[in-house]
Amino acid sequence: TITVTGEAPLVDVQSSVQQQVVNRDLLDNLPSGRQMWNIGATLPGIVASGQDVGGAAGIQQIRITAHGSDAFQTVTQVDGMELNTMGANGSAVPYFNDGMAQEVTFQTSAMGAETSTGGVRMNIIPKEGGNAFRGDTFFGTVPNSSFSSKNLDDDLIRRGLTTQPAVLVTREFNQSLGGPIAKDRLWFFATYRYLLSNNSVAGAFYADGRQAVDDNTLKQGLGRLTWRANANHKLSYFYELTKKFRGHDGLAAGVDEVAANRRPPVHYSNLQAKWTGTLSPRLLVETGFARNVTKFNVVYQQGVKELPFTPAWYAKASRQDTLLSTRHVAGVVEQYNIPIRNTLTSAISYVTGSHAFKWGYQWGFGFYDQRREANADLIQVYRNGVASSVLVQNTPVFSRPVMKADLGIYGQDAWTLRRMTLNYGLRWDYFNSYIRAQDAPAGRFVPARRFDEVHVPTFKDLAPRFGVSYDLFGDGKTAVKGSVSKYVSKFATDNVNAYNPMFLAADSRTWNDLNRDDIAQDNEIGPSNNNAFGIRPSRNPD
């Protein structure tokens, strides 16, 4: 028996990219709550927008950045293909089933020309199955309130804090299975994950006086097929469906249970198909398609929403006290969201003894439809329990921006000259978006509206990249690296929405509750002081 092993060096002396690889053992053992972005937060150079130890922060996402970048520069990939969502101008990250990952790489600086941004680049290397059936070790967690510390003492209670936040229960179950459908030709891999996280919220209570709970569940199922057509060609496909539920979104001290919105499960999914062809020992071709769908709604609690212009609709306006920091009766404006992002990617790599050339493109396109509605089309505002004003809104609002092309075409090379390797490349970025024709029915304070398509100028830019890595002693253990590169900001639909004539607007007006029924009627509301209410000021998109 002859066993040949090879291990990657601890120091990459040929690439100027700062990269850290987290293998499966680390993914299993780090106290990260088994969320990909939490893993990144444990690495040097990466800063997280929030802290989470072992899932104590629940299911909500945090953002990761590095070296002064912002969250809009973070890119998430699976098998080298981008799977960011359309949310937050394309920077929001989907939920990924931890069981799908064989390893995760994090790049934090000196990114090459194959990505447009200069922030964190996270790439998930997925599991694929194989010629032997394998069921990964079942993973489960069962923490409860006994795992939460308590520091609520008499002094804090005297000062007004009678309850404290705590982890009530965290449950996660994750099981994976992979194996052959046809030996040496076709493999499958599947994984299912169930995650529950309930945390009590300080200062928030149910109607019966019990402390209120921020309740969350996440269910994820993923299936993957890998077909080895012959020795040189491989096709892979995976589909992941996620159902997320949040029972009390926006729950906080002073917010009634019914005044916290909820997120019912709608539809989150990731899809990817990829072909890899090794056309010669030096030539590799890759092409694929990826899609992210993140349909989600942030709506009132059950029984709160009413039909427009009915007596109950007027009576169930959200009520907020600016001095007491409370909210009653109903939550903030309802949101119905349909963001869909597609990405086409192709790349050709040609490797010689001293050069590693790569050429390719990424073309992203999609849309982000939104609808916003509210009971009574306003929020009733109080000061220490006394009616003060109303915040009038131009609901209902229907928004339909489109990202036609987020296109990048690039070429790069790694040229090794003895101990020194030069990494250089050039990328051309092109961005094109517009707003489709939009219609919205009349609201309480606005007439029916129709707007034609809105087109804005395209954006184009050339971004050179240059980096150098030098093997200081020639033994592969010490390298000196440096880079100077240009990157562009990440766009989706937020930028074109700056010119959208259909947008959510609010106008503060006086309110005198004449009949003392605690319902803001039209004759009790003062005139607007804003002649441009609901009208987007003319802006030059250039």
What can you tell me about this protein's structure?
The chain has 542 residues and is mainly beta. It contains six helices and 31 strands. The strands form five sheets. It has a 17-stranded antiparallel β-sheet that branches. A five-stranded mixed β-sheet has the order 1-6-7-4-5. The longest helix has 6 residues. The protein is globular and about 90 Å long. It starts with 17 loop residues before the first strand and ends in a 32-residue tail after the last strand. The model has no long low-confidence stretch (mean pLDDT 89).
Mind sketching the topology for me?
Blueprint: E1 18-23, H1 24-29, H2 36-40, E2 46-48, E3 64-66, E4 75-78, E5 81-82, H3 87-90, E6 101-109, E7 121-126, E8 134-135, E9 139-141, H4 154-158, E10 166-182, E11 186-205, E12 211-230, E13 233-249, E14 261-263, E15 267-280, E16 283-298, H5 311-315, E17 318-321, E18 326-328, E19 334-351, E20 355-373, E21 378-383, E22 386-393, E23 397-399, E24 401-417, E25 420-435, E26 438-440, E27 449-451, E28 454-455, E29 459-471, E30 479-485, H6 494-497, E31 506-510
Parallel strand pairs: 4-7, 17-21
Antiparallel strand pairs: 1-6, 2-3, 4-5, 6-7, 8-10, 9-10, 10-11, 11-12, 12-13, 13-14, 13-15, 15-16, 16-19, 17-18, 19-20, 20-23, 20-24, 21-22, 22-31, 24-25, 25-28, 25-29, 26-27, 29-30
